[in-house]
Automatic annotation (TrEMBL):
It comes from the Bacteria. It comes from Arenibacter antarcticus. PANTHER family: SERINE / THREONINE RACEMASE FAMILY MEMBER, SERINE RACEMASE. Gene3D superfamilies: 3.40.50.1100. The lineage of its organism: Bacteria, Pseudomonadati, Bacteroidota, Flavobacteriia, Flavobacteriales. Residues 16-303 form the Tryptophan synthase beta chain-like PALP domain. Keywords: Pyridoxal phosphate. Its cofactor is pyridoxal 5'-phosphate. This is Pyridoxal-phosphate dependent enzyme. InterPro entries: TrpB-like_PALP, TrpB-like_PALP_sf. CDD domains: Thr-dehyd.
């Protein structure tokens, strides 16, 4: 099922009291470098530092009172665990966040600071899923997937909807591709609120499952997870992939040095903090900039949760 225009608008209204309407910034210098007119949707300024707050809030708001009373659970060592913890805290709901034992202490502490109940699992997907299933069985908590959940996808799409309200005549919208929730939501927003706006994904060569999935027409998996863009190591799902297949024009892959270079440019020229995953769509544009000359282009900067002691430059 592909959500309607009304569903995305309703989500935007529903989550508005709980999220920031993030700014859209531009840079004349980056326009000169790219040869296009660029607009950056700064979800690095979102609550908890990433777009994922939108989907987390929307998903919890859609639960019944009985479901809210039982709580929510997800498995995540990254931004979605923090987002679900903070969203649940805001709505008076208990959130159980399953985190692998390999997760950095700083991420575990962030989940706790947002009010999440941390459950440590084995550092494998099977281990994480097992612990999450146990909590669902014992507590009756509702499992919320970080990207393969329709309410989450619709919530993530509100970032692009806001951007197109500010800049309705964009020719292209660039988004990073990880688990597929953000790009699926972005593609829905472009369909309903754009004027022929095409959506293009940016993806590292090291984790190019979405690129291969679009080519083959079925969900492909990654053999390696070798990329500095740690937020993009996740796989597409059976709920978001049909939306991506129907509405995303193409995915451009980028090399690791291109990601780091794009990240440095944004730090240097725009004076804002973004994480490596956020730099991937900008890197994708720069890689093929001749094709996009003189076009109006929106780029979603997905988040700014970066470990300052482990910068790639």
């Amino acid at each position: 099922m592909i959500p309607t225009r009304e569903i995305i608008q309703e989500a935007g209204n529903r989550i508005a009291p709980f999220v920031h309407r993030t700014p859209v910034l531009s840079s004349r210098l980056l326009d000169d470098i790219s040869g296009a007119q660029l607009f950056f949707k700064c979800e690095n300024f979102q609550k908890m530092g990433a777009f994922k707050m939108r989907g987390a809030i929307n998903a919890i708001q859609q639960l019944t009172e009985k479901e809210r009373n039982a709580g929510v659970v997800t498995h995540s060592s990254g931004n979605f665990g923090q987002a679900l913890a903070l969203a649940a805290n805001n709505l008076g709901v208990t959130a159980y966040i399953v985190v692998p034992s390999s997760a950095p202490a700083v991420k575990i502490e962030a989940v706790k600071a947002y009010g999440g109940k941390v459950v440590i699992s084995e550092p494998t997907l099977e281990g994480r899923e097992r612990e999450a299933s146990k909590i669902v069985a014992e507590k009756g908590a509702v499992f919320v997937h970080s990207s393969n959940d329709l309410n989450v996808i619709v919530g993530q799409g509100t970032a692009a909807m806001e951007m197109l309200q500010d800049q309705p005549d964009l020719d292209y919208l660039f988004s990073p591709v990880g688990g597929g929730g953000l790009i699926a939501g972005t593609a829905l927003a472009a369909r309903y609120f754009g004027q022929g706006c095409k959506v293009i994904g940016g993806e590292p060569f090291g984790v190019d499952d979405a690129y291969r999935s679009l080519k083959s027409g079925k969900i492909e998996v990654n053999i390696t997870t070798n990329t500095v863009a740690d937020g993009l190591k996740t796989q597409l799902g059976d709920i978001n992939f049909p939306i991506i297949k129907a509405l995303v024009s193409e995915i451009i892959r980028v090399e690791e040095p291109e990601i780091i270079s794009a990240m440095m440019l944004i730090w240097e020229r725009m004076k804002i903090v973004i994480e490596p995953s956020s730099a991937v769509p900008f890197a994708a544009l720069l890689r093929e900039k001749e094709r996009f000359k003189n076009k109006k282009i929106g780029i979603i900067l997905s988040g700014g949760n970066v470990d300052l002691l482990k910068l790639p430059f």
